[in-house]
Specification:
It contains 11 helices and 5 strands. It is of the alpha/beta class. The chain has 2 domains: 44 residues, no CATH class; 151 residues, Glucose-6-phosphate isomerase like protein, domain 1 (Rossmann fold), CATH 3.40.50.10490. Helix 3 crosses helix 4. It is globular. The two termini are 20 Å apart. The model has no long low-confidence stretch (mean pLDDT 86).
């Protein structure tokens, strides 16, 4: 069952319907927020690991929110929408996140492809001359070929959007646009929660900027999913 069909079965008119319901019936979380944050800071200062991690994630979300108001964020959004083709790539360990980001972008535009590098050649990217293409590199400590890939893409004529840490020395040399995250003190070295949040909010910004075109495309995708997802085997 598709998301749209499921929501309709509950009596909502798509995502807009449930948003209105939540807005009208959700508790006043804004008024509770200062007390919640105060308790969280207290627990973190007492060395509670979960509180420390959540507090750090809140700081990271604040960083991403501030980043979304910067010129490079607007450049990233407009370039994703205006490029002829968009390629997304990451280390294999982040392939699930990369594919999710690709899927989110397809609700706003066509011609988006995820490259996992499994063929060892990135022939999908370099097999033909670049024609108004964009490569989105989801960088991580284990993605040791990210620098070479970004440099090669630039030389081939692609624009490069790099999502990486703040202290990536080669970022401004081989990327046209860089969206950077501060290093994480807790959790894993891959900074998964921050990467996921950055990709989610970036995809949301792209869909918002696409406006009615994204809404029309989303409705068409839901129609096609309803048509094919429940198709009987023959």
């Amino acid at each position: 069952m598709t998301v749209g069909r499921f929501l309709r079965s509950l009596g909502y008119h798509g995502l807009d319907g449930i948003k209105v319901h939540l807005k009208e019936n959700a508790p006043g979380i804004t008024s509770q927020l200062p007390n919640i944050l105060e308790q969280l800071q207290k627990d973190a200062s007492e060395g509670r690991p979960l509180a420390t991690q959540i507090a750090e994630q809140i700081e990271m979300l604040q960083h991403i929110y501030n980043l979304a108001g910067q010129p490079q964020w607007r450049d990233a959004v407009s370039t994703i929408l205006s490029s002829g083709h968009v390629f997304v790539t990451s280390h294999p360990s982040l392939a699930g996140i990369g594919r999710y980001f690709r899927d989110r972008l397809t609700f706003a535009r066509d011609q988006v492809l995820f490259l996992d590098g499994a063929n060892g050649s990135y022939i999908e990217l370099f097999g033909e001359p670049a024609e108004d293409g964009l490569l989105v590199v989801i960088d991580s400590p284990s993605f040791v070929t990210s620098r070479l890939l970004a440099r090669s893409a630039r030389r081939a004529g692609y624009k490069v959007l790099l999502l990486t840490g703040q202290f990536t020395e080669w970022a401004h040399e081989f990327a046209n646009i860089t969206l950077s995250l501060p290093p994480q003190r807790a959790n894993s070295r891959e900074n998964l929660s921050a990467i996921m949040a950055l990709l989610e909010y970036l995809a949301t910004s792209v869909a918002h900027a696409a406006g009615e075109a994204a809404e029309t495309r989303t409705r068409r995708i839901e129609e096609l999913q309803g048509m094919f997802a429940q198709a009987p085997l023959r």
